[in-house]
Amino acid sequence: MEKKKVLFISSEITPYLPETEMSRKSRFLPQGIQERGKEIRTFMPRYGSVNERRNQLHEVIRLSGMNLIIDDTDHPLIIKVASIQSARMQVYFIDNEDYFQRKHVLKDSKGNEFADNDERAIFYARGVLETVVKLRWAPDLIHCSGWLTSLVPLYIKKAYNDNPLFVKSKVIYSIFHDDFKKSLDVNFRNKLKMNNIINEDTEFVDEPSYVNLSKMAIQYSDSVIQGSPKINPEVLEYIKSSEKPFLDYQPENTYIDAYNDLYDKMLY
Predict the structure, then answer these.
(1) CA distances from 181 to 19, 48, 188, 214 (A)
(2) E strands along 152-247, which residues?
(3) Chain segment 26-77, per-residue pLDDT in tens
(4) CA angle at 17 for the pair 11 and 21, rounded to the nearest 5°
């Protein structure tokens, strides 16, 4: 039987960024799922704080060179890759000079959230999906971790829904304790638009707050996981009212098997 394919899209992965609940799970979950017989691909942004030399990142020329248009501006998409030798897995990095060269991740040195985080999320989600199209790799399941990946469910179900590579893809969204405080740019809904996405599809983010963005991600996902011990209470309440398949918080010693069981329920 052909191996099932799982695409992991995360906001952060250790050792490329400091250890957090999300970065640790995003590092060890793909390895654990691969060891349980599935084929994987893993993506994260190439933030400026990721040391390219130490981590031996190199550009994948055949995948780079595309331009993504956001808010009527062209942004070149650069793809880099590195290997975690001990896990026999590769990590693909989405890079762009405008969005991901700065030394901080989502906030500046004073703790202020970057004003263009909305466009960075759009670029990251679309960049991953366009790269997967170039790889001609059809994921059976797409697991998104962190709010920066929250647009992937919308794009899969609406913008890429007629692409043969994604027609059968199931989407899981993991919610962590990574709230942002300030709403995203007021033109966010406009910037989201692309083929097959109409105004009604993005009503959730008329006011683009963390809670509303999370609700939209949940709406377009097939299943939801609580990734941190505590998450935004309004988001948790919405998950439960949505009646989506939901896996509550799993500690370090059980999460890989618990997630793998959920994958199998969705895939078979």
Answers:
(1) 22, 23, 16, 13
(2) 170-175, 223-226, 246-247
(3) 999 999 999 999 999 999 999 999 999 999 999 999 999 999 999 999 999 9
(4) 65
Closest among 54, 121, 50 to 92, alpha carbons compared? 50
Parse the chain into domains and list their residue ranges. Answer: 5-267
Tokens of 255: 């999460």
How many CB atoms lie under 10 A from the CB of residue 133? 16
- The CATH code for residues 5-267 is 3.40.50.2000
Q: How many C-beta atoms surround the C-beta of residue 199 within 10 A?
A: 11
Prediction pTM value: 0.97
In this structure, which amino acid lies at residue 65? G
Amino acid at position 60, single letter: V
Q: What is the C-alpha separation between 46 and 266, in angstroms, rounded?
A: 30
Give the pLDDT confidence score for residue 196 in this predicted structure. 87
Assign 153 to helix, strand or coil: helix
Q: Is 264 helix (H, G, I), strand (E, B) or coil?
A: helix
What tokens appear for 43 in the block?
A: 């993506």
CB burial string 171-187: b at 16+ within 10 A, e below: bbbbbbebebeebbeee
Query: DSSP letters of 55-110?
Result: HT-EE-TTT--EEEEETTEEEEEEEEEEEEGGGTEEEEEEE-HHHH-SSSSSB-TT
pLDDT (tens digit, 9 = 90+) per residue, 75-129? 999 999 999 988 899 999 999 999 999 999 999 999 999 999 999 999 999 999 9
